[in-house]
Design the sequence.
């Protein structure tokens, strides 16, 4: 969901002396194609310029030949050339690293995508852990006393009821706001899609954040689902995952805009627009 989809390429890359030297070599075009493919692979791995299958398994020349669709001898030549020119580094464990990766790439954006993925994985692991605990309780029923079984079932039923009531309350609040503020009383599909953010998002207390987005849409008279989801995706992409983080970010932008809209004149006074 919303993984990293791009890397940056310098428009003056072909003016670099290393690239010019490579262009004079046999197989120059293929070497440069493999260089760009390595950059793209580093972006896909999203590990500060490292390229690997996983954290324990580096790519071999044969693996890269398969992935890049090039003969292994050509890949071997390209890696040798790029290494000699200092464009890549291959450590003692055979892991490939793009030199000066942070200098050329949007590391902050890549780190944000990595954090979002980590947050989604954390939520997934939490759900799986809860599921395993319930399964364990079910297996342990056979060795508990009847009183213990009844007590455990009552507690589990109480928790399920509380969770369901809380979920229904959050759903009801969002639908009520939608219906009361002119977003489309009969637009059932849009409501369902908006409610999916309660489960499929990295936000903490997503119901509060959805209501915040609805309020902004009302304020700007943009009562459309795509506008609301645009707001939510923007916060998600900025790693603003709590209501407090969102409101702090709004305050920071407000102060910044207020400062930018103030100009100084020769008489020593400031005039705000």
Sequence:
């Amino acid at each position: 969901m919303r993984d990293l989809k791009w890397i940056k390429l310098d428009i003056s890359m072909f003016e670099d002396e290393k690239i010019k030297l490579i262009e004079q070599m046999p197989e120059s075009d293929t070497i440069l194609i493999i260089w760009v493919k390595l950059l793209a692979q580093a972006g896909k791995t999203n590990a500060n310029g490292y390229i690997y299958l996983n954290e324990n398994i580096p790519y071999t020349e044969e693996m890269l030949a398969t992935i890049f669709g090039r003969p292994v001898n050509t890949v071997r030549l390209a890696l040798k050339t790029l290494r000699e020119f200092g464009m890549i580094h291959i450590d003692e464990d055979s892991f490939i690293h793009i030199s000066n990766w942070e200098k050329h790439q949007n590391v902050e954006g890549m780190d944000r995508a990595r954090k979002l993925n980590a947050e989604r994985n954390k939520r997934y692991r939490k759900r799986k852990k809860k599921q395993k605990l319930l399964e364990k309780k079910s297996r342990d029923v056979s060795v508990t006393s009847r009183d213990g079984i009844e007590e455990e079932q009552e507690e589990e039923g109480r928790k399920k009821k509380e969770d369901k009531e809380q979920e229904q309350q959050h759903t009801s609040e969002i639908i009520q706001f939608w219906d009361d503020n002119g977003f489309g009383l009969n637009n059932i599909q849009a409501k369902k899609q908006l409610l999916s953010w309660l489960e499929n998002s990295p936000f903490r207390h997503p119901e509060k954040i959805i209501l915040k987005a609805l309020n902004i849409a009302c304020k700007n008279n943009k009562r459309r689902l795509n506008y609301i989801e645009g707001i939510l995706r923007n916060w998600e992409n900025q790693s603003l995952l709590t209501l407090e983080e969102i409101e702090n970010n709004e305050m920071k932008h407000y102060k910044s805009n207020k400062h930018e809209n103030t100009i100084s004149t020769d008489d020593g006074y400031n005039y705000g627009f």
Summary: Residues 13-105 form a domain with the Arc Repressor Mutant, subunit A fold (CATH 1.10.10.10). Residues 146-180 form the longest helix (35 residues). The chain is about 65% helix and 5% strand.
